[in-house]
Amino acid sequence: MKENTMKKIQTETALSTINSSAQCITMSSREIAELTGKRHDHVIRDIEHMLEELGETSPQIRGHLPDAYNRPQRAAFLPKDLTITLVSGYNVQMRYAITKRWLELEAHAEGTPVPVIPTDLPEALRLAADLVEQKEQLRIENEALKPAATIGAAVGARKGTSVMEFVRKLPGVNTRQVHKKLAELGYIRKRKGTWSVPARSKKYFVEAFDRSGLSVITLTVNGMELVSRLYLAGQFQMLKGAAPVGAEKLEQAAYV
Fold first, then answer.
1. Pairing between strand 72-78 and 27-28?
2. Which residues is 190 bridged to in the sheet?
3. Of 8, 44, 99, 176, which is the most buried if we count CB atoms within 10 A?
4. What is the spatial distance between Cα 99 and Cα 83, in angstroms, rounded to a whole number?
5. Strands 215-219 and 205-209: what pairing?
6. Residue 11: what pLDDT?
7. Model's pTM, two decimal places?
8. What is the Cα 245 distance to its own chain's centre?
9. CA 204, 208, 212, 214 torsion-angle sign
């Protein structure tokens, strides 16, 4: 019986979501009745009294839900503020049930998984192990980014370093092909014999002019890290017989 009740609640929640706008989650009066243990007609009565006192006349609130025989029955669909107002006069257990359900609805709407609290020791140990594993994975990912950040800062110590100045310090790179590769990856664009920076790449690159008045692409700190990562990943064409050096050697070379 409990399983059937949950299926009914899930069905009604889906229906109430369909009846709501894209910006507003709603809870049906029948679901409120199921969660609080009150009779549905009594919940409807409470809702009508509340709406009358508030002067609320929105037609979106009133609607219908099918009964066990698929016949339309009177129902109401309340947004969060009206649901909380309605149950404010109910007892603590009822208010708690509604609050808990609202958290689930909001988490589902945002695509956020609802946290499950362990109920026994094995579950608690599994959760602890998962958290340790997630923490270790995050540490590994952060460590992987450190070489590029360090190299970028070392090679491009001077603010406003151009792409060409920067890559000349990366051993073995065919510097003539760097801009072309960055364009292939979508970071920059070819424009009337020169290069331009699209809006989405301004975090990494800046259009500037050299002392001769020629257009050049310079690097931000994030850009230095990006180019270093591309180099370490083997994205740039190398000179014949050359290969990207390891992060440790490249970092040492940067300070020479």
1. antiparallel
2. 195
3. 44
4. 9
5. antiparallel
6. 43
7. 0.40
8. 35
9. positive
